[in-house]
Specification:
The complex is a heterodimer. Chain A has four helices and ten strands. By secondary structure, chain A is of the alpha+beta class. In chain B, about 30% of the residues are buried. Chain B is globular. Classes of the chains: A alpha+beta, B alpha+beta.
Chain lengths: ~200, ~100
């Protein structure tokens, strides 16, 4: 339900898109491409440009309903059909290194935090669990961390900020393809391989 | 802008480069001495884009998908003239 004047949200949406367009070339060079922009939604693809062949690692839909009284929502989508995806359909893990920065990292160790979260319900969709994302602030576990504490604070929660964080945790540690082939089963599954030493802090 | 006289220091050495730093989608050109800690470039970028409300520790600078140590220099990382770097707030605690 839109309870902020739609023209206010639309104006802020247009400002954010315009800012992105000003650096679209630099973003494209690191694999971030805007697929569509139609208020209140903007869809972006994030690619691992260091792979051969390069891969669209994931895509998202940013939703600006009630922005910026509410933060931007992020949904993970199929980059071609724009259908929403579940966590097991996303080939990226969104890991964060919360341990000492200069120590070797095992992706399964407690010093690595999974930022892509999903409730156990079959209908639930995954979300990026960091402040500035609507789904983070809507979650009961974060009721003490209001969006209003972050809003207009050096652009935290802005489109540019969210693109930076999605790229940082989703793309920067990808180092290879991990391919799993089941012989005689006509099934093929490929995930993107992480370089454990590159998981960002 | 490459190799012009204005980039030479008092001894005639060309230690200056100009990099583009994108601060939360706002680009700004910053002149950098390649032997000076990157902290100085970050401070300039934040000042030029009006992002002065948060301490330096809240920001992180990335280049070619790597978060840079601000105590190191452009020379340490081999950052060339005209490079594009991204500066954004560190994500708050989540997960």
């Amino acid at each position: 339900m839109q309870f902020v004047d739609p023209e206010v949200s639309r104006k802020k949406f247009e400002q954010e898109i315009s800012l992105f367009e000003g650096v679209a070339d630099a973003q494209r060079r690191r694999g971030v491409i805007m697929l569509e922009s139609k208020f209140p939604n903007a869809c972006f693809a994030f690619s691992a440009t260091n792979l051969t062949p390069p891969a669209i690692a994931f895509a998202v839909r940013f939703n600006f309903d009630n922005y910026d009284l509410l933060p931007i929502s992020i949904k993970f989508i199929n980059p071609f059909t724009f259908e929403s995806l579940k966590q097991d359909q996303i080939p990226v893990q969104f890991l964060r290194n919360i341990g000492p920065p200069d120590q070797p990292i095992n992706p399964l160790s407690p010093q690595v935090q999974a930022l892509l979260q999903q409730e156990p319900s079959p209908e639930a969709l995954p979300f990026l669990c960091i402040p500035g994302v609507r789904e983070y602030h809507d979650h009961p576990a974060h009721s003490g961390d209001s969006w209003l504490l972050h809003r207009k604070n050096c652009s935290e929660g802005s489109l540019g900020y969210l693109i930076d964080k999605l790229h940082q945790y989703g793309i920067s540690s990808i180092g290879s393809y991990n391919v799993l082939v089941q012989v005689q089963a006509s099934a093929f599954q490929a995930r993107l391989g992480l370089n454990p030493q590159s998981i960002p802090i | 802008m490459k190799n012009d006289e204005s980039k030479k220091d008092d001894h005639g050495h060309n230690n200056q480069i100009v990099v583009k730093i994108v601060v939360n989608s706002t680009p700004t050109d910053v002149r950098v001495n390649i032997h000076t800690p990157l902290k100085v470039a970050v401070e300039k970028a934040l000042e030029q884009t009006g992002n002065t409300g948060r301490p330096l520790e809240d920001w992180e600078l990335t280049w070619r998908d790597k978060v840079l140590d601000l105590k190191k220099t452009a020379d340490d990382y081999g950052i060339p003239d005209g490079a594009e770097l991204f500066l954004s707030l560190r994500a708050g605690k989540g997960g």
